[in-house]
Design brief:
Alpha/beta knot, elongated
Length: about 230
């Protein structure tokens, strides 16, 4: 049986500070854990351990310990034709949902500094296991990534509520979509740095960041299908 002192140390991984120090994170639930291509460092299925390590009021099953998965930005843009860059998206549910969409439509994901932490338990749950399937870079300087993407031959596309091109007018080439938070959107320097701006036609004043990113990734994916 796992000791209480060790459980106490592992429970600290619910906090970003301790995750960063150990470069380890917790994933919860059989379905989510089962999405990993590699076995976890350790898995905990004893009820007392689950209650201590779970971040849920009602635990969803076993809890597993994994090593960090994120990759360097250079690898991300070398391995994917489509990438979504999240700039300052602070809601873990939105970040996790966008990672799911990126997985669904064969894209990579990049998280700027100031985004919700990739390894926040809420973010991990919201990915529904997609965190294990696609390259994800994090803690990035958005302007630096945009410049790297330009040099790698990507067309960089900033999302805007109005005045941009329609999504179906985008070129059939490597694309980096830049999506801001629902409240603040993107700062002016991001628009100046990107080559194109895109607006999703909508009767609403604006769209949730995860909805907007999913629509754009789907549109780009459909354009390259045989």
């Amino acid at each position: 049986m796992i000791s209480q002192s060790r459980l106490k140390r592992l429970a600290k991984l619910k906090q970003k500070k301790y995750r960063e120090e150990a470069r380890l994170f917790l994933a919860e639930g059989s379905s989510l854990i089962g999405e990993s291509k590699s076995p976890p460092v350790e898995i905990f299925d004893e009820p007392g351990a689950i209650r201590r390590l779970s971040s849920l009021t009602t635990p969803a099953g076993p809890v597993a310990l994994f090593r960090f998965l994120d990759v360097a930005a250079s690898r991300l843009i070398e391995t994917r034709q489509r990438v979504v860059l999240l700039h300052g998206v602070q809601d873990p549910g939105n970040v996790g949902t966008i990672i799911r969409a990126a997985h669904a439509f064969e894209a990579g994901a990049a998280l700027s500094k100031g985004c919700a932490d990739l390894y926040n338990p809420k973010t991990v749950r919201a990915t529904m296991g997609s965190i294990f399937h696609i390259p994800i870079a994090r803690e990035l300087d958005s302007l630096e990534l945009i410049e790297q993407a330009h040099l790698a031959g990507y067309t960089t596309v900033a999302t805007t509520p109005s005045g941009g091109k329609r999504p179906d007018s985008l070129p059939d080439e490597k694309l980096l979509f830049v999506v801001g938070s629902e409240g603040k959107g993107l700062p002016e320097e991001m628009f100046r740095s990107c080559q194109l701006q895109v607006t999703i036609p909508s009767c609403a004043a604006s769209l949730n960041a995860a909805v907007a990113a999913s629509i754009l990734l789907y549109q780009a994916y459909m354009r390259v299908l045989p």
